[in-house]
Write the structure tokens for this entry.
Amino acid sequence: MKIVIIGAGEVGFTLAKRLSYEEHDLVLIDENIEKCTKVQEALDLSVIHGSGASQSVLIEAGLQSAEMLIAASGVDEVNILACMVASKMGVKRKIARVRNPEYYSKSSILSASDLGVDLFIHPEDEVTEEIVRLLMRSIASEIVEFENGKILMVGVKVDASCPILNMQLKNVGTEKQRRSFRVVAILKGNKTIIPDGNDYINKNDHVFVVTKAESLPEVLSLTGKIDQKLNKIAIMGGGMIGLGVASKLEQSGVDVTLIESDREKSIQIAGQLKKTMVVNADGTEIDVLAKEGILNMDAVVAVTSDDETNIITCLLAKHLGIQKTIALVNRVAYLPLMPVIGIDSTVNVRLSTVNAILHFVRMGEILSVATFHGIEAEAIEFEVKKDGGLTGKLLRQLKLPEGSLVAAIVRGNEGFIPFGDSIIKTGDKVIAFALPNAVRSLEKRFA
């Protein structure tokens, strides 16, 4: 498939990197010559230096023969204008990354079709939803829901107190317990592995597990962890994400305190929120935090516009004994370091955007796609609509691509964790986990 991507920032670069594994015909446009050079040196694809809003540049990129446009620059208007041009050229699918809610809200005068957009991606909304999910599952470093929460993919950091430390996966728990979960990936240092029963869990590993929602407490108990409800939550930063998280938490009956350093912004936020205590203060000052009752909080969410401030705030919170910390970190290079220095969870606007876009890009009968912070792997949910050589055979006989595995199967209204003797049937929804170089082959098997 020919895909034109506008924007060579972290979103565009990450998308191009992911899609390049799958042999798509990619063209990337950016008006920053340094970013263009970086992409050309790192990836094997066509790069054009110019504005994504320029008709001549879009024609030079061959947009008229493309099947998809992904407009992911940092400027809403550039992305929308590019989609309008693409619509006139007959491009089938157009995605626009847009931050201003005026463009995609229900009250907008111009609809998505008027603007030539098939899918609006609003990054802050994606991150807000991710933070709320993490707060609902306190022990998880990452969490992705499938089938309306029936199947969960949970990331857990293994520390020195873990009772299954230095144990092979095939020996973890009883045989009955092992049938309730599947370890789908382990991050060891900077290396991601798709494990089998012979692999070990070691100190400081970041383990990703798939399980049914009702089995999660028992699975967590194997690692010596308990999922506790977070009743008091502090949010540092009153931007779009902080405001969105506070608004959603108000609906769940949680005690929320929002700390914003800008006085005028604090007053404005206080008028928008109904139940949240809004405090005008610097979130990095320990004395101020103590005065505002931070020591009694169950969780701290740092979502200011500055990565370093968010990291420092969460480290201070951990030092003060706060149970759960979540930091907004937009520099992708920082993400692998966060678990090492002690921050429980990180969210990244760009990766959340990539997740949403990949779902729309994928070929075949794909229902959802998820990528993860700091690991090179994807979770993909397929629907098996016909016999493509997958149905009626034992799972161990399927010879799936190296670096991939089937993590869960949903049949009707019931989900289960499959093993070698499980069989895929027509109509099943299959959740698979794969390293980037196995994604394309896996999609071909299920498409």
Summary: The mean pLDDT is 87. The longest strand covers residues 375-383. The longest helix spans residues 76-89. The CA atoms of residues 83 and 321 lie 49 Å apart.
